[in-house]
UniProtKB/TrEMBL annotation:
<dbReference type="InterPro" id="IPR041470">
    <property type="entry name" value="GCP_N"/>
</dbReference>
<keyword id="KW-0963">Cytoplasm</keyword>
<dbReference type="GO" id="GO:0007020">
    <property type="term" value="P:microtubule nucleation"/>
</dbReference>
<dbReference type="GO" id="GO:0031122">
    <property type="term" value="P:cytoplasmic microtubule organization"/>
</dbReference>
<feature type="compositionally biased region" description="Polar residues">
    <location>
        <begin position="310"/>
        <end position="325"/>
    </location>
</feature>
<keyword id="KW-0493">Microtubule</keyword>
<feature type="region of interest" description="Disordered">
    <location>
        <begin position="305"/>
        <end position="325"/>
    </location>
</feature>
<dbReference type="Pfam" id="PF17681">
    <property type="entry name" value="GCP_N_terminal"/>
</dbReference>
<dbReference type="GO" id="GO:0000922">
    <property type="term" value="C:spindle pole"/>
</dbReference>
<comment type="similarity">
    <text>Belongs to the TUBGCP family.</text>
</comment>
<comment type="function">
    <text>Gamma-tubulin complex is necessary for microtubule nucleation at the microtubule organizing centers (MTOCs).</text>
</comment>
<dbReference type="GO" id="GO:0051225">
    <property type="term" value="P:spindle assembly"/>
</dbReference>
<dbReference type="Pfam" id="PF04130">
    <property type="entry name" value="GCP_C_terminal"/>
</dbReference>
<dbReference type="GO" id="GO:0051011">
    <property type="term" value="F:microtubule minus-end binding"/>
</dbReference>
<dbReference type="InterPro" id="IPR007259">
    <property type="entry name" value="GCP"/>
</dbReference>
<comment type="function">
    <text>Component of the gamma-tubulin ring complex (gTuRC) which mediates microtubule nucleation.</text>
</comment>
<dbReference type="InterPro" id="IPR040457">
    <property type="entry name" value="GCP_C"/>
</dbReference>
Amino acid sequence: MLHEFLLALLGFTGDFVLDNSSARRRPEPAEAGGAGDGDVGPAFRLAPDLTFLQPSERSAIERLISLGFYYRELNRFATESRDLSWIQSSVEVSSPNADITLNGKVRKGSAYRRAIANGIAEILSVYRSAVLQVEQNLLSDPLPILATVTHGLNKFEVLLPPLYELVMEIEQKDIKGGQLLNLLHKRCHCGVPELQSCIQRLLWHGHQVMFNQLTSWMVYGILQDQYHEFFIRRQVDRDEGNESAQSDVADKFAQKLAKDTSLTSWHSGFHVSLDMLPEYIHMRVAESILFAGKAIRVLRNPSPGATLLEPTNQSQTLKGSHRMQSFTGGPGALKELPNFSNISAEELLPQAEADKVDAMLKQLKHASEFHKRLFESAVSSIRTIAANHLWQLVVVRADLNGHLKALKDYFLLAKGDFFQCFLEESRQLMRLPPRQSTAEADLIVPFQLAALKTIGDEDKYFTRVSLRMPLFGMKSSTSQKDLQKSNTSDLSLQGKASSELALDGWHSIALEYSVDWPLQLFFTPDVLSKYRKVFQYLIRLKRTQMELEKSWTAVMHQDHVDFSDYCKDRKNSSATQLRRLRTKPFWRVREHMAFLIRNLQFYIQVDVIESQWNVLQTHVQDSHDFTELVTFHQDYLSALISQSFLDIGSVSRILDSIMKLCLQFCWSIEQYETGANMFEIDHITEEFNKKSNSLYTILRSSRLAGSQRAPFLRQFLMRLNFNSFFEVSSSN
């Protein structure tokens, strides 16, 4: 009976110790939600026919043999979780993420559960050694049996039952990955030192898997997560709902990404899974881990066709003024290579830096306990290393500042002479309605002529700029003639729909900018769409300003001719003199229009664009962190949009209406000789006065006065209302 008793402690039953578990069914994971806790207790019982045992002895023995039941169940869990037979049988099961249990059932595998099983196997090994020691003690001194066994196995009575409950919860709820780490972390907070030590050891085993995954991700840029347990996940479901105006651009960008896996991974490849993120790891830290791994993937997978710049001294990192001199072509400038196709990952991420990251993670991995502060500090250091090398790649090698300057020149109209020439060359074309099939091709000719006249050969960025004419609807494709046919009722309905606010069919002129690897990391489709939005606004504004100037020039020329005729023949020039007198009020209105458009243009180009550009340049000069640069650039674009009122629907609609009225006025005045409707011109004047007064009223409202636009907005209002004209007009 002694040996059967000892065997029962190791999970083997016989004639004296019976196993009642066959009469009870252990709940499957799918039934965990409805399973009660009463059926998962110890199932080992002494045979009822052992009448020679006293009740106290029976109770003590059954309490001890329950350890055998816990041992057997824990050993079963460890054996099943550590079973690697799925490697050979996964083909038959047709699921590479499935394990085969001892019962022949298929369940999902788990690297974290296997690691916890290794920890449990360690504890069970200690338990077996304790049972063996008890057996040796009993063989040498058989009396007293119960006291000897109780003394040898006493500490396991506080260890095995909680571990059994832990295993049951893991199996019933199918807990794995970060959720398993969360469970262990919560169980560590108990008042039993021995149990706390065991749970911490299990947590240590789980952290070994996590640190292995972190090393693979943050050192090599590889996501090693066969069972989808890591808190960094591949992006499976992506939002494909894009605006129709951006669909073509998005498709082209997606085609580029398909050719470059590193860029695909950067923009849409990975995300943080909150379900598997341990609660003791902050979201900010998880995002740093995500960024570091994505950066390492980019650095270790350079595009084979990249055109980059090579520093004259690659052993030194450009800092301060030296780095800015390299942007402007000063001393220490970067030498452009025609094709830097032989660039290697070793040049972008030196092995010494990778070894440094690996050493930091190994130090955390080998620590006996998980220290949150040390972990966050190491992640921050690794993120800094990745961000600095990514900055070196994008800012220095890829000439980021040169491309920023090019976008400012063309999308923000800094090259005013080029766009002035383009608008003059295309002015006659834009007087006609655009043809949907050839509108873009028609604009290419004046665009190229303007480039030949104003763009020099030294501008290497112009070849990246292309003119586009996205598809436009018939409703907004009005021409000069359509605008002149607008009657009073049409004018009164302006502003009720954005499609009706288009200047004419040419309002959708846009630019595209070709970006190579690795600048797609910085100039995302969203960033380029913001540049495009500002460009379309600025080109409409400049076109309106040019039309106002051209109309003044043309009519003044005619006025000088009329005045010359009047001086030559005063008796027969009464009609000419009458026409001159009748048109004078029109020029007062034209001057009001030109005053508003000029000040708005000056405000956007000088107070907004140049001011924000200087701020961005300061950040580019001082920052060595890629993510900081991305943030600064996003702030730059947001400031351009907000301070240009493009994010305020009411203001942008009024500005569009004002520009449309200005164009209508110019075209109507030029056609005045051919019998334009005087009532139409008067109505345009009345509508302009209403819109301009409404604009002034909105801009000086308290809602805008308290926003971030306030300092710049006050300058614009001061220029508009320098003599209190708008204030008096709006109050009437």
